[in-house]
Structure prediction request, 915 residues.
Amino acid sequence: MPFGTPTEALEELQTFPRLLFHHAKARGDAPAIREKDLGIWQTWNWSSVAERVRALASGLAALGFKRGDNLAIIGDNRPHLYMMMSAAQCLGGVPVPLYQDAVADEMLFVLEDAAIRFAAVEDQEQVDKLLEVRDRAPLLEHIVYDDPRGMRHYNQPFLHDIHALMEMGRIHNRNHPDFLDEEVAQGRPDDVSVMLYTSGTTGQPKGVCQTHAAFIAAARGGMQIDGLDASGGILSYLPMAWVGDHLFSFAQALVAGFTINCPESTDTVTTDLREIGPTYYFAPPRVFESLLTSIMIRMEDASALKRKLFHYFLGVAKRCGVDLLDGKPVSLADRLLYALGNLLVYGPLRNVLGMSHIRVAYTAGAAIGPDLFRFYRSIGINLKQFYGQTETCAYVCLQPDRAIKFDSVGPPAPSVEVKIADNGEVLVKGPMLLKEYYQRPDATAESIDADGYFMTGDAGFLDQDGHLKIIDRAKDVGKLANGAMFAPNYIENKLKFFQYIKEAVCFGHDRAMVCAFINVDMGAVGNWAERRNIAYSGYTDLAGKPEVHELIRDCVEQVNAALTQDAMVADSQIHRFLILHKELDPDDDELTRTRKVRRNFVAKKYQVLIEALYGGQATQFIETEVKFEDGRRGTVAADLKIVDASTFPAARQAA
Amino acid sequence: MSKKIGDVILDLQNISLRFGGVKALTDISFDVREHEIRAIIGPNGAGKSSMLNVINGVYHPQEGVIIFRGRERKKMEPHHAATQGIARTFQNIALFKGMSVLDNLMTGRITRMKASFVEHALWLGRARREELEHRKKVEEVIDFLEIQHIRRTPVGRLPYGLQKRVELGRALAAEPSMLLLDEPMAGMNVEEKQDMCRFILDVNDQFGTTIVLIEHDMGVVMDISDRVVVLDYGRKIGDGLPDDVKTNPDVITAYLGVSH
Prediction:
């Protein structure tokens, strides 16, 4: 074999298949992938993963998969699906992971756009979805499924059990022993390694083509900053179609050679996290938030002594925990107290969270509340933010150890250039930039300027230390009627930092005042209501309770008070708000699959509510159609109360 | 569906059951074929649960003959039923509330444990090997019913719908050839009912388990059963395919009442 020998320097390997076969040769017995199956963690080592990838790739080739073909990957994080990604890459094909919870019609767009002939899917559910749209996606030729459950009566010839495919591949391998090595040898670093579809907050999704070189550069950069190595592992539980998972669970795992752990099911992630105790952990802010919420709820039920201990030592951690982690000077008394707290509270707490072994935890995707961020750092978890997009392999800025600012995403990462355009938009350049949007030269040209900078669409600025601060999506930043800046995301994030508020949508562009839609957090508010003996029957009922309105009004007014601190946003205080009668849902197109609000869609759908907010009405009736997970439809109707919130004079103007 | 329905494996002939002067069942005959889903329906107090208890060996009918797999049964106790491959669930959930889901399912394996009590208590060779084997089987049931996330949760803390699923799980852990389900969907919401239907059909389809079920939800019964027997006041008033039963005038009268 001309490559992948142990003597070859890891740094020189520039495609993922070569990295995979290198690990298989150099450290074949080290664990590569674990999966919990029938209650037991099963381990595949690197050499067995490589053998399976070989078999799968040859099997695909036997079915007619060729260089340049795209392979759709649909399902939860399953070892075989990760292996299928590698298998496609071995043949010079491109894996295209899709969001597994998308309904069939949404998948159809990608199937057509990417001219998908082959799909590798998890189970019967995904097979059914593809069969549903098959007559509208005539290019689709073969579907490979991982889990045979429920598939006994499917006898279509284009459906293949993944084990049968492997067998086919092994036979192919025996007959053509040099075939796969030759295919892998043909792979070039600037070949497209993966195509990730953008979530489509605006318009139709676009396929972002990333090369081996780009993802490898991003993975190496991250490793360099945080010292990721082959020891330890990560829990792979976020959608495979999302760039973050591809960076951590695929690119970095292959570059660094650490273990990825696939949870038993989506419902068992917290238990699995505790059992595995990963060394690297990634979660979007909302996961950290719900973890904290559940701890706080459970502490309320603990005995008085435990509660006292918990709160006392959290106070200690708040005072000095972050400084200790950052290596700043802390008094001896505090050091001793913190050590005691570590023994009694922080250690057990980290254990409960499954974060005892964490070296670095990352968060990104949305702004994280400063209190939330500080909480995790203060109990000794090295939580960091980073900033990036699908188009930049999720790699632009990364907070370095000991120089973490809560409200910035850190300085540009190694080999990345960041500059700010005249309109405040963040521009980036580096080896991790996308090659192109799939078959969209117009969109590619629009997003990369003449100097090779990618236009992120985010508004932000670099502070005096060169750390990047993100304000909002550039196109969302508007102006109030009086000309003051209106950055809806900025206000919404402040609202969402309250545990009771799950989602918020603010309006104010070209208007005299800011108004907001609120989604309460069912878990936190439900618990709050139960403690007060407020009976409710479901989300709509809970959201309509006058007590809940008061609770949320209090949150809104606190945000208003905070907004007065900064002259730039003091005019953006929320004058009126309402609590929506249903939770915003990706199935109803109100959120993207990555759970970002589709602002314009929501504004259009609930036009009547916006009019009521600005028209001064006290209540408004609304009836909305909702889609259930199984595709049925229903309606939710309610009389929504519109609540006025107090606003405050701007601090600096008053002074 | 390529399901094959086999021969009669349970034949009930002229069953009558009395409690003192109360006639619970009067002269009832019907049969159950291998691999089929057989429903028993009827208004409240029709004798459905009594019928199930007769099959199960809890009640002993004063008259009538029960032939199970070609052998006539005179008197049988519930544990005989269990060792012969009949498992059941109950109308009111009968799980060990303080025990975890896993432990509850393990109790379903008891009839298949061969090691002695002492061996189990001391965790000796055979007991240990056996336990691993049983645990594996139980894990397969957990996987089948998609209850991995509650494996370690005490049953008492689970919502009703999940408890019902755990109860089905315990019955399945015994690897029964015949499964008796007493109102598996009572008190469930639509989504839970759909899940339960799916599981019942899957059990029948994948393991070939014969299923006798009592159910009130007519929609469910008509959708999933192969044949239906209808009881009213302890008498059989209908028997046949779901569509035939649906149009049977006696059945309609029993369910909707008669105008006087």
Chain A touches chain B at residues 37-40, 149-150, 152-153, 264-265, 267-268, 271, 630 (CB under 8 Å). The mean pLDDT of chain A is 89. The two ends of chain A are 75 Å apart (CA to CA). Residues 285 and 562 of chain A are 21 Å apart (CA to CA).
